[in-house]
What does this fold into?
Amino acid sequence: MCLFVFCLLFVSSASAQERLYPNEFPLQDVILLNSPFKTARDLNIKTLLQYKVDRLLAPYRKEAGWVPKDSSYPNWIGLDGHIGGHYLSALAMNVAATDNAACRKRMDYMIDELKACQEANTLHHPSWGKGYLGGIPNSAAIWSTLKAGDFKAYHAAWVPWYNVHKMYAGLRDVWLYTGNKEAKEMFLNFCDWGIFITAKLSEQQMQSMLDTEHGGMDEMFADAYQMTGDKKYIIAAERFSHHVILDPMSKGIDNLDNKHANTQIPKVVGFQRIAELTENQKFVKAASFFWEAVTTHRSLAFGGNSRKEFFPSAAACMDYIHDVEGPESCNSYNMLKLTEDLFRTHPLAKYADYYERTLYNHILSIQNPITGGYVYFTPVRPRSYKVYSAPNEAMWCCVGSGMEDHSKYNQFIYTHQQDSLYLNLFIASILNWKEKGVEIKQQTTFPYEEKTKLIITKGRSHFTLMIRYPEWVSKGKLQIKVNGKALIYDKNPGSYIGINRQWKKGDVIEVLLPMHNSIEHLPNVPDYIAIMHGPILLGAKTGTEDMKGMIADDSRWGHIPSGKMLPLNTAPIIIADSLSEITNSLVPIKNKPLYFTTPNLQLINPIHVVLEPFYKIQQSRYMMYWLTLNKTQYHRYLDSIAHTEKEALALQNRTIDFVAPGEQQPEVDHHLQKINSNTGNYLNEFWREASKGGYFSYELSTNGQSNLSLMVRYFGKEEGDRKFDIYIDGQKLISFDNTERWNQSHFFNVTYPIPNNLLNGKNQITVKFQALPESTVGAVYYVRVLKNNI
It folds into this structure.
């Protein structure tokens, strides 16, 4: 029997939840006991219930032609509607996991309202809107023209398919987790709309459309196929598969350098779902290789990846240290989804090891333990800090995924495959395995104790218990006892140990999980290290000075730390001749598990270092990665970095506003306008240019100040005619010729003073780069508005 038929039969015969994932237990069958995860889940429910549902629904009513019952949230207004889908998913998960009455009431209310919107779209827009359920601003213009192959309105909008994908997922999750058949019908009607709206597009047009971020639309159609068995949905899933990623990944080619990370990961979740249901080897290989490429070469010690939302090349990984826009929370959310899917078809310990690391160190760390707010970027830069959202204000993408992150902690603790039960995570919980008629209680305070205990509390059954032997436990150190008798095994770390027997009430399985200290290097920057204890990343608090915007407002850039960047050359530096010198110097603090002092560690720029779990460090500046040098390296380092840091911080202090051309989010934030303009990257920096009489422009803040300059970054060895004009609010500032200007292969920053008559009385200006006839603008790598040096 092929895998798909098996899965489909399972869906047909499953409980009311009708799960798509046959190896997972329904959320209601896994009860969280006291642990950091239960605490985070319960706080998250309180946070979710602070949101105003009618504001989340406002964009859907507006696009359906109705008067909203409340105003839309102003933050990220161009992406209006995306949070509603995430919120619906989070409600459904919490209804299933906790039977929370308030969450259920809100979920049912949203489904009723959304069903009415979908029906209104069908009635009011018969030519393009049958089954449509989106809150995208200007929906009618976008979809009616895209249907005919005209992408102008589509490209002018903010990632339309990404936006609607969240509502697709929300409807699916209401059905998946609560068995709501109305949500299932709405989901399938929405899928039918997606097929209809793209039916006339050629393969070339589809791939062009998919060049714009589109979430995991391929996953949605694969899910619809598994729900129904209707082949039109798997055909749609494959049509929505982006070959720019699929083709090289299926051949083992890593082409991720300088690609927007969270644009790619959801696509690959879809690849794996298609692989799972069709066994198409192209999709199988692409999903597996992508996971390996990201987790092995592109992930940090806490499981996250990307800087400034992009995968850096090897040469650009130092950006993690220089920038405050570290790994994005959405990336880990989606990598965990991909990991769950891969584990379902190949239940390997490496997947659970990665899942555990990311769950503890990234996902747990992105919740404000007091307010429940969510984190967008987790800075890696020494002595930076995290910024948290506030309910009903910040509406970032990572707010939406964060709502879900803390709602499904019980989803991967246990899984089952045929007659085997997999113990994947060491989290205090109770499993009710209804199919086997047994209940299992896991007692542990892991990671604060190096053990866990499983007790069969009800029933009896024959099955194989698969206990994960984590990669962070040394060879031969794992101990397992069954009813007090030691188990003999021949497995190595990074595997599962199977115990096949008849289990009965009262059986006790004890697992000893010794942890030790280890070092992990920052990818491609070996002088920077992270300190691990078992799977737990250890960090250190470094103070609370100038944490401006730590609780974000609803501004467009509120998710980025805006307080002072403390100089790298004054951050603590470890001086050691060997890594073992570091790991051996950690001294446990009595009666405080996972807390360590470092009295014997030599530090330059010393602070009182107390190492603790990174996920516990909140509302503070911190150290995650440490520069580690021997004495000779240290003296050379000081001479070079002091000068570089002085210049960088001086420029930062003069900067009022800036935009990075070619990078998606900064350009959206600065209202990019363009004609005949292209982007790319070179030497790990992004650029934008325009030709054929084209232009591009940005809106930049001046804060109402005068005596300002415009700084533009160029590469010093461009080919071809590079002649263009720069305008401020329609008035020419300067004509510039970069044709063989420097003939040097490095970057140059050029500063243009802005006359005060172009600034007076203004809080912002529009800076336009206009190509001259038969010439090209740029390439432009960076644009800043600066205060003039006095």
About this structure: The radius of gyration is 27 Å. DSSP finds 22 helices and 30 strands in the chain. The first strand starts at residue 30 and ends at 32. The domain at 656-787 is CATH 2.60.120.260 (Jelly Rolls).
